[in-house]
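User: Predict the full complex structure for these chains.
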Amino acid sequence: MTREEPESTFRALRHVKPRVRALAAYTLRPCEPRIKLNQNESPYDVPQTLKQRIQERLADRPWNRYPPFVSHNFIAAAAESAGWPAEGVLVANGSNELIQAILAVVVAPGVAVVIPEPTFTLYRLMSEVGGGDVVSVPLGEALRFDVDAIVRAARESRAAVVVLCTPNNPTGATLSREEIERIHDETDALILLDQAYVEFGGYDAIPLLRGRPRLIVLRTFSKAMAMAGLRAGYMLAAPELAAEVSKAKLPYNINFFTEVAAAEVLRARDELVAQIELIKEQRDCILRRLAKLPGLRVFPSEANFVLFRVEAPGLTHRAVFDRLLEEHGILVRDVSGYPMLDRCLRVNAGTPEETDAFLAAMAAILNRG
Amino acid sequence: MTREEPESTFRALRHVKPRVRALAAYTLRPCEPRIKLNQNESPYDVPQTLKQRIQERLADRPWNRYPPFVSHNFIAAAAESAGWPAEGVLVANGSNELIQAILAVVVAPGVAVVIPEPTFTLYRLMSEVGGGDVVSVPLGEALRFDVDAIVRAARESRAAVVVLCTPNNPTGATLSREEIERIHDETDALILLDQAYVEFGGYDAIPLLRGRPRLIVLRTFSKAMAMAGLRAGYMLAAPELAAEVSKAKLPYNINFFTEVAAAEVLRARDELVAQIELIKEQRDCILRRLAKLPGLRVFPSEANFVLFRVEAPGLTHRAVFDRLLEEHGILVRDVSGYPMLDRCLRVNAGTPEETDAFLAAMAAILNRG
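Assistant: Here is the predicted structure of the two-chain assembly.
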């Protein structure tokens, strides 16, 4: 080959695994709506005083030095906030990274992972990447968890992991303390509890960790903690299990900004309580007022979002989505591609003004038919 | 089982893959030396004016919103700086994450990866995690790259990837333009060039990318860019290949701080030139003055560090390491566990004062015997 004829990309691409080439690259159409209610973010920014404290701590620190091998400061704040030993805390760039690491150390071909569905799609994706067998348990009546079916599936498949997102995304359903205990006690699996939305409702399972080394709790900064821009999350589990999961994580991968900001926001949680209450009020307001509109089925939710099905004759969910965006500048999430969620949209609670604008737009669209 | 008898951790841990349990957890003894010359960091912090610009951009941004799906701003700055299309740029939390992603989409059982060794250990680790066959090619005379042997090994093993760290860590050796071209042209493998240290010396391979879709270049912010605390790196390759590698990366995993800071520092590279020149002078000074001390073998280096072997009779490399730390408060890196690097230590260039302190300490230790 001479330099005059550039080599074709074929010779490079044939080294990529066929299974990878067959995957569609994950892309997202960028969109700048007037009101953004599609990613379950907090509508409130981090309080200005807290931002300032974080910025001052950044200025103090040498940026040319590696972050510590272990993010002591972040871990200590998470441990203190949860009342759980620091040795049982792992931190990461978003809880996605922890889901990936947990499943990486457990899932192999022939290993069963029980997942109630519909739910956050990463659990299935990462289980399949590991070659595991996903055992899907459909949600039950009104999209509530079917605890009997979950226990049965885990026992019959001898599952290594049961993944429970509570409150569940994108439906909003929760598991009670008794239900979590039952799934744990009646199975032999690791119970991975993703509690990204637990500040908004449902049972916070941290008190269950003691004496239950198969239980793993994930928490995030992206929702109630108003720091989606940070991409940080943490995991609480038995120290011995945390040590195993840490082997699937790259060292030094928490930058100093995340370490500083996460620790500060955890220590300032009290400053966020009022924001969280406002968001819960808006969610309840959406639940109440959407239920009064004709042609919608609204599902119960304890998260910061509401799932609803468009059942109005002659009106598709896609028409509602498009009109919200084009006529009102409001972006919600089309979740109709999830199993069981045909014709469904998801909207997260915004500020009172954003919530009002959304509800007024919905009333206009539905009453017009 | 009753709640009175807590469950043993055994039931949790037996779900972890045996291969993972067999790995030692990676730990590092924390140490706060007076002079830190062990991690090849820049001894100079980011200039104050640049820090301020970055902090102002952070204050402007809503922290409660997710970062963009793709880090446009960071990617655009990297593309502009390299003169390479944005579609061929991937960014990550450190180039480690890119090494992991590249090897994840290529390496499977039976796939050969050629690695000249000794080198950065992550290449081997990640190849083995994927079940690949590592074909190790020992460095040659004076720890220089043995290009003939690399080409031969890649051809004979029909390697999918050849990993070349140039300048090489922890030895400092480099490959010339002609050598890189030869390894590329005479093999059929992907050529992964880790150029973490290229600002300090050796051939910068970015101009070779055009017309060579099997070539991949990695760059980092941790060394010459004085931002080890940021944990950021980027990859340059053919857009088609970058699209495949991106499938192994989690979405949204660059936080807004990294996006803002990386873009700003790339655009302010000119402000760093003087620092980089100072570091190169210190490296040359270490090379020159260490070579004059008795009982040392000093290896040539074009990186920001110097490798040397302790050959003085009656003095072990460990004794030198310990005395540097305990008597002088200077931390260097013990790399004697690498293949071929028996009795070797690595020291990175510091400020002129740090370099002087190190050289004076070495003279005291070696002359005392």
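Chain B touches chain A through 86 residues (CB under 8 Å).
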